[in-house]
Task: structure prediction
Amino acid sequence: MPTLLTPIEIGRLQLRNRIVMPAMHLLYTPDGEVSERFTAFYEERAKGGAGLLIVGGCAVDEYSGGRELIGLDHDRFIPGLERFTTAIHAHGALVAAQLYQAGRYAHSFLIGRQAIAPSPLPSRFTHETPREMTREDIENVIESYAAAAVRARKAGFDAVEILASAGYIIS
Result:
């Protein structure tokens, strides 16, 4: 237990302790915008002593999964996210953004278009068949991840986490 509460260095990050809160899809960000409820939820965890809070999923593009996800797919989200990261930092915690693109697991009714994936195999989650990605789609997804990481940095996030599991686009 004593080690849990000691500082740790991860790359260039200095965490006040080893308590990390993983990302959760809270759906507290209507139309991708940070809400007071979202900020208050994470502020309580920062006040409680967590060293690093990971927020997610953060949409990287229009195929990510829906507008209830945290928006990192456009510059218009930066001011709200900057207010959020400033609030978290005020309580001594660091904050990371989980970059998310659902791939074949995106519901077409939520994203307003057919999902994309490396192959047109039906999703066991949505029971929909995604459109097979073109080379241009692949390049766009790569660029979207990079642009979302840059926006996260501009908004004051200390790190990004790439969600590369569970059948999402990267995995």
